Amino acid sequence: MTTPADVHDVRDPELPGRLLAVERDELVPLLRGRADADFALPVAACPGWTVRDVLAHCAAAFTRVRERRFEEGVFSPEANDRDIAERAEWSDQRVVDELERGMTEAGPLIAGAGGALDALALGEWVHAGDVREALGEPGAYAGAGLPYALTLLAQVTGRRGHLPLHADLDDADEPLRLGDFSGERPPARYIGDGPTLVRLYTGRPVHAAAYELAGVEAEELNIFGG
Fold first, then answer.
1. 191-211 pLDDT, tens per residue?
2. SS3 sequence, the chain?
Protein backbone atom coordinates (compact mmCIF):
# COMPACT_ATOMS: atom_id res chain seq x y z
CA MET A 1 0.00 0.00 0.00
CA THR A 2 1.30 3.45 -0.87
CA THR A 3 0.01 6.72 0.51
CA PRO A 4 1.50 10.12 -0.40
CA ALA A 5 2.49 12.46 2.41
CA ASP A 6 0.68 15.64 1.35
CA VAL A 7 -2.63 14.37 0.05
CA HIS A 8 -4.73 16.82 2.06
CA ASP A 9 -3.61 19.94 0.19
CA VAL A 10 -5.81 19.40 -2.88
CA ARG A 11 -9.22 17.72 -2.76
CA ASP A 12 -9.81 14.82 -5.13
CA PRO A 13 -13.59 14.97 -5.72
CA GLU A 14 -13.69 11.44 -7.11
CA LEU A 15 -11.99 9.88 -4.09
CA PRO A 16 -15.12 9.28 -1.94
CA GLY A 17 -16.83 7.52 -4.82
CA ARG A 18 -13.82 5.29 -5.45
CA LEU A 19 -13.69 4.38 -1.78
CA LEU A 20 -17.38 3.46 -1.74
CA ALA A 21 -17.18 1.46 -4.97
CA VAL A 22 -14.25 -0.60 -3.70
CA GLU A 23 -16.01 -1.29 -0.41
CA ARG A 24 -19.29 -2.12 -2.18
CA ASP A 25 -17.57 -4.81 -4.23
CA GLU A 26 -16.18 -6.43 -1.07
CA LEU A 27 -18.98 -5.89 1.44
CA VAL A 28 -22.15 -6.60 -0.52
CA PRO A 29 -21.19 -10.15 -1.59
CA LEU A 30 -20.22 -10.84 2.03
CA LEU A 31 -23.63 -9.70 3.22
CA ARG A 32 -25.50 -11.65 0.52
CA GLY A 33 -24.00 -14.86 1.86
CA ARG A 34 -24.89 -14.31 5.49
CA ALA A 35 -27.70 -16.00 7.44
CA ASP A 36 -30.55 -13.95 8.86
CA ALA A 37 -29.23 -14.46 12.40
CA ASP A 38 -26.03 -12.64 11.52
CA PHE A 39 -27.94 -9.44 10.86
CA ALA A 40 -29.14 -9.49 14.48
CA LEU A 41 -25.62 -9.57 15.93
CA PRO A 42 -24.67 -6.59 18.13
CA VAL A 43 -22.13 -4.08 16.85
CA ALA A 44 -19.66 -3.17 19.59
CA ALA A 45 -18.70 0.16 18.00
CA CYS A 46 -22.35 1.27 17.93
CA PRO A 47 -23.91 0.37 21.30
CA GLY A 48 -27.55 -0.64 20.98
CA TRP A 49 -27.34 -1.27 17.26
CA THR A 50 -27.27 -4.58 15.42
CA VAL A 51 -25.58 -5.32 12.12
CA ARG A 52 -28.90 -4.69 10.41
CA ASP A 53 -29.29 -1.34 12.19
CA VAL A 54 -25.86 -0.16 11.03
CA LEU A 55 -26.58 -1.24 7.47
CA ALA A 56 -29.99 0.47 7.55
CA HIS A 57 -28.39 3.67 8.85
CA CYS A 58 -25.80 3.61 6.07
CA ALA A 59 -28.36 2.80 3.39
CA ALA A 60 -30.62 5.61 4.60
CA ALA A 61 -27.74 8.08 4.60
CA PHE A 62 -26.93 7.29 0.99
CA THR A 63 -30.60 7.59 0.02
CA ARG A 64 -30.68 11.02 1.64
CA VAL A 65 -27.67 12.00 -0.46
CA ARG A 66 -29.31 10.69 -3.63
CA GLU A 67 -32.58 12.47 -2.86
CA ARG A 68 -30.86 15.58 -1.46
CA ARG A 69 -32.86 15.40 1.76
CA PHE A 70 -30.89 17.27 4.41
CA GLU A 71 -33.48 18.73 6.76
CA GLU A 72 -32.50 20.27 10.08
CA GLY A 73 -31.11 17.66 12.45
CA VAL A 74 -30.23 15.21 9.71
CA PHE A 75 -27.78 12.52 10.90
CA SER A 76 -28.48 13.34 14.55
CA PRO A 77 -28.96 10.29 16.80
CA GLU A 78 -32.72 10.90 16.73
CA ALA A 79 -32.83 11.16 12.94
CA ASN A 80 -30.68 8.04 12.60
CA ASP A 81 -33.05 6.11 14.85
CA ARG A 82 -36.02 7.26 12.76
CA ASP A 83 -34.31 6.13 9.56
CA ILE A 84 -33.68 2.71 11.06
CA ALA A 85 -37.26 2.46 12.34
CA GLU A 86 -38.64 3.30 8.89
CA ARG A 87 -36.95 0.15 7.58
CA ALA A 88 -38.01 -2.12 10.44
CA GLU A 89 -40.42 -4.12 8.25
CA TRP A 90 -37.98 -4.53 5.39
CA SER A 91 -36.23 -7.81 4.71
CA ASP A 92 -32.50 -7.88 5.40
CA GLN A 93 -31.79 -8.24 1.71
CA ARG A 94 -33.91 -5.20 0.86
CA VAL A 95 -31.72 -3.18 3.23
CA VAL A 96 -28.66 -4.56 1.44
CA ASP A 97 -30.25 -3.65 -1.91
CA GLU A 98 -30.65 -0.04 -0.79
CA LEU A 99 -27.11 0.00 0.55
CA GLU A 100 -25.69 -1.35 -2.71
CA ARG A 101 -27.55 1.24 -4.76
CA GLY A 102 -26.38 4.00 -2.47
CA MET A 103 -22.74 2.97 -2.59
CA THR A 104 -23.02 2.90 -6.38
CA GLU A 105 -24.82 6.19 -6.97
CA ALA A 106 -23.71 8.48 -4.14
CA GLY A 107 -20.15 9.02 -5.38
CA PRO A 108 -20.84 11.65 -8.07
CA LEU A 109 -23.20 13.52 -5.74
CA ILE A 110 -20.58 13.60 -2.99
CA ALA A 111 -18.03 14.73 -5.57
CA GLY A 112 -20.23 17.68 -6.48
CA ALA A 113 -20.79 18.77 -2.88
CA GLY A 114 -17.45 20.55 -2.64
CA GLY A 115 -16.18 18.51 0.29
CA ALA A 116 -19.22 18.91 2.55
CA LEU A 117 -20.10 15.20 2.30
CA ASP A 118 -16.60 13.70 2.14
CA ALA A 119 -16.67 12.80 5.84
CA LEU A 120 -19.96 10.96 5.27
CA ALA A 121 -18.28 8.66 2.75
CA LEU A 122 -15.44 8.04 5.19
CA GLY A 123 -17.88 7.37 8.01
CA GLU A 124 -19.85 4.86 5.97
CA TRP A 125 -16.63 3.02 5.13
CA VAL A 126 -15.80 2.90 8.82
CA HIS A 127 -19.26 1.48 9.53
CA ALA A 128 -18.48 -1.28 7.05
CA GLY A 129 -15.51 -2.09 9.27
CA ASP A 130 -17.81 -2.11 12.29
CA VAL A 131 -19.97 -4.67 10.52
CA ARG A 132 -17.00 -6.84 9.54
CA GLU A 133 -15.84 -6.89 13.13
CA ALA A 134 -19.31 -7.81 14.41
CA LEU A 135 -19.48 -10.67 11.90
CA GLY A 136 -16.06 -11.95 12.91
CA GLU A 137 -14.64 -11.26 9.47
CA PRO A 138 -10.98 -10.36 9.01
CA GLY A 139 -9.92 -7.04 7.55
CA ALA A 140 -12.03 -4.62 9.61
CA TYR A 141 -10.93 -1.06 8.73
CA ALA A 142 -8.54 -2.52 6.18
CA GLY A 143 -8.97 -4.22 2.81
CA ALA A 144 -8.67 -2.70 -0.63
CA GLY A 145 -10.30 0.54 0.47
CA LEU A 146 -7.73 1.39 3.15
CA PRO A 147 -5.40 3.52 0.96
CA TYR A 148 -8.38 5.56 -0.24
CA ALA A 149 -9.72 5.87 3.31
CA LEU A 150 -6.38 7.11 4.66
CA THR A 151 -6.09 9.68 1.89
CA LEU A 152 -9.64 10.85 2.56
CA LEU A 153 -8.93 10.97 6.30
CA ALA A 154 -5.94 13.21 5.66
CA GLN A 155 -8.03 15.52 3.49
CA VAL A 156 -10.92 15.71 5.97
CA THR A 157 -8.68 16.40 8.97
CA GLY A 158 -6.78 19.02 7.00
CA ARG A 159 -9.90 20.91 5.98
CA ARG A 160 -11.25 20.78 9.53
CA GLY A 161 -8.05 22.22 10.98
CA HIS A 162 -7.58 19.15 13.12
CA LEU A 163 -4.40 18.89 15.16
CA PRO A 164 -1.37 18.00 13.03
CA LEU A 165 -0.04 14.46 13.06
CA HIS A 166 2.81 12.78 11.19
CA ALA A 167 2.04 9.08 10.67
CA ASP A 168 4.76 6.57 9.81
CA LEU A 169 2.70 3.63 8.61
CA ASP A 170 3.97 0.06 8.70
CA ASP A 171 1.93 -0.77 5.60
CA ALA A 172 2.74 2.29 3.46
CA ASP A 173 5.84 3.38 1.58
CA GLU A 174 5.56 7.04 2.55
CA PRO A 175 4.47 8.88 5.71
CA LEU A 176 1.04 10.45 5.95
CA ARG A 177 0.38 13.97 7.22
CA LEU A 178 -2.99 14.58 8.83
CA GLY A 179 -4.58 17.74 10.18
CA ASP A 180 -3.46 21.36 10.05
CA PHE A 181 0.25 21.86 9.32
CA SER A 182 0.14 25.65 9.56
CA GLY A 183 2.82 25.61 12.23
CA GLU A 184 0.65 26.75 15.12
CA ARG A 185 1.18 23.44 16.89
CA PRO A 186 4.05 20.98 16.55
CA PRO A 187 2.87 17.77 14.89
CA ALA A 188 2.17 14.70 16.95
CA ARG A 189 3.71 11.42 15.86
CA TYR A 190 2.18 8.03 15.13
CA ILE A 191 4.00 4.80 14.32
CA GLY A 192 1.90 1.75 13.51
CA ASP A 193 -0.40 0.27 10.89
CA GLY A 194 -3.15 1.92 8.88
CA PRO A 195 -6.18 0.14 10.38
CA THR A 196 -5.12 1.10 13.91
CA LEU A 197 -4.75 4.73 12.82
CA VAL A 198 -8.31 4.61 11.44
CA ARG A 199 -9.52 3.15 14.74
CA LEU A 200 -7.89 5.97 16.70
CA TYR A 201 -9.35 8.68 14.48
CA THR A 202 -12.87 7.22 14.65
CA GLY A 203 -13.03 6.22 18.30
CA ARG A 204 -13.01 2.48 17.66
CA PRO A 205 -11.43 0.00 20.10
CA VAL A 206 -7.75 -0.52 19.40
CA HIS A 207 -7.48 -3.82 21.31
CA ALA A 208 -3.89 -5.08 21.62
CA ALA A 209 -2.49 -3.47 18.47
CA ALA A 210 1.09 -2.33 18.74
CA TYR A 211 1.54 1.36 17.97
CA GLU A 212 3.34 4.44 19.25
CA LEU A 213 1.64 7.81 19.76
CA ALA A 214 3.49 10.89 20.97
CA GLY A 215 2.48 14.51 21.40
CA VAL A 216 -1.25 13.87 21.62
CA GLU A 217 -3.72 11.79 23.61
CA ALA A 218 -5.64 9.17 21.64
CA GLU A 219 -8.97 10.79 22.60
CA GLU A 220 -7.92 14.04 20.89
CA LEU A 221 -7.74 12.31 17.51
CA ASN A 222 -11.38 11.22 17.31
CA ILE A 223 -12.99 13.17 14.45
CA PHE A 224 -16.45 11.82 15.27
CA GLY A 225 -16.34 12.59 18.99
CA GLY A 226 -18.69 14.96 20.72
1. 999 999 999 999 998 977 789
2. CCCCCCCCCCCCCCHHHHHHHHHHHHHHHHHHCCCHHHHHCECCCCCCCEHHHHHHHHHHHHHHHHHCCCCCCCCCHHHHHHHHHHCCCCCHHHHHHHHHHHHHHHHHHHHCCCCCCHHHHHHHHHHHHHHHHHCCCCCCCCCCCHHHHHHHHHHHHHHCCCCCEEEEECCCCCCEEECCCCCCCCCEEEEECHHHHHHHHCCCCCCCCCCEEECCCHHHHCCCCC
